[in-house]
């Protein structure tokens, strides 16, 4: 169930939020221009991913899959494995690389953001817990199921933060890229990043194509929130995710990325809740 709400203070930077109960927990989600349930964004992404994989597989046999397309595409990805997924999607990655280079060539000096926000009420997760979990191997393990258009992710700790190699898509724009420097935001290099002084936990990093070209910047911000601002009895936390691209990027790319981020916010936070409970019970 969901409805549109307009909290005045907590969502000052967004026009509206979608109020959903997901797996028994309250979520207030915003970002995409087209307001739909998170599950609809996810089914749409699964339709795209399944179509892409089946087209690349051709007549190759695949196992019997369930009727729910989100579950089906996850099982297919698990069946194929990371190496096979990378091999199958290589032509799509090549196309995406050319598209990103065209966007950069057509851009001026400005940057545009794709944004998604989630205010989340989970009994065992705070902004600090989620921020710590996000940098662990458990977050990488959750990646394949976090979005139907996720295909691979490997993260390592470096002297300056985190570095990740990622293969994922946004409505079929399937891109193989690295985030080599996910750490404290560098606003000297990237003055377009929002300051967000009310968000004490912030990390940012470049999105870099295989040839070393920077094509975007990821910025994740976290804070705890008062439950009373959202009609809840307990404290919650907020995830504010932004991906910045140069100003030649099509608006549809930004919309699809925003939907992608909403799916990730929900699925990763739910997995963080499960992992936190499991760790406390061990």
Description of the structure:
- Strand 8 (201-209) and strand 9 (214-225) form a beta hairpin.
- Strands 1-2-3-4-10-9-8-7-6-5 form a 10-stranded antiparallel β-sheet.
- Residues 1-15 have low confidence and may be disordered.
- It has 7 helices and 10 strands.
- Helix 1 packs across helix 7.
- The protein is an alpha+beta fold.
Mean pLDDT: 93
Shape: globular
The low-confidence parts are: 1-15
In angstroms, what separates the terminal alpha carbons?
A: 34 Å
Helix residue percentage: 25-40%
Spatial strand order of the main sheet: 1-2-3-4-10-9-8-7-6-5
String of helices and strands: EEEHHHEHHHEEEEEEH
Evaluate the radius of gyration.
18 Å
How would you characterize the largest beta sheet? 10 strands, antiparallel
Class based on secondary structure composition and strand pairing = alpha+beta
**Multimeric state of these chains?**
single chain
How many DSSP helices?
7
Number of strands: 10
Strand % is 25-35%
What keywords describe this structure?
282 residues; alpha+beta; ten-stranded antiparallel beta sheet; 7 helices; 37% helix; disordered N terminus
């Amino acid at each position: 169930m969901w409805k549109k709400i307009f909290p005045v203070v907590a969502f000052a930077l967004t026009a509206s939020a979608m109020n959903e109960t997901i797996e028994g927990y309250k979520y207030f989600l915003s970002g995409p221009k087209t307001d739909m349930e998170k599950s609809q964004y996810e089914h749409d992404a699964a339709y795209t991913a399944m179509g892409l994989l089946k087209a690349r597989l051709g007549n190759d046999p695949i196992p019997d899959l369930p009727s729910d397309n989100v579950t089906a595409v996850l099982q297919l990805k698990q069946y194929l494995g990371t190496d096979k997924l990378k091999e199958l999607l290589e032509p799509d990655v090549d196309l995406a690389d050319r598209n990103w280079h065209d966007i950069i060539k057509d851009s001026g000096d400005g940057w545009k953001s794709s944004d998604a926000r989630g205010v989340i009420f989970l009994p065992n997760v705070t902004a600090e817990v989620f921020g710590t979990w996000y940098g662990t191997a458990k977050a990488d393990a959750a990646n394949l199921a976090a979005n139907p258009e996720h295909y691979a992710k490997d993260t390592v700790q470096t002297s300056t933060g985190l570095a990740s190699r990622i293969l994922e898509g946004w409505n079929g724009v399937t891109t193989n890229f690295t985030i080599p420097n996910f750490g404290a935001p560098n606003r000297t290099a990237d003055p377009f990043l929002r300051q967000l002084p009310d968000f004490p936990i912030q990390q940012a990093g470049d999105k870099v194509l295989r040839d070393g070209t920077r094509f975007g910047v990821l910025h994740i911000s976290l804070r705890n929130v008062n439950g009373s601002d959202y009609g809840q009895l307990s404290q919650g936390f907020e995830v504010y995710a932004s991906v910045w691209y140069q100003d030649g990027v099509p608006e549809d790319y930004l919309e699809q990325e925003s939907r992608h981020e909403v799916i990730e916010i929900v699925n990763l936070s739910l997995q963080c809740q499960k992992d936190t409970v499991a760790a406390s019970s061990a």
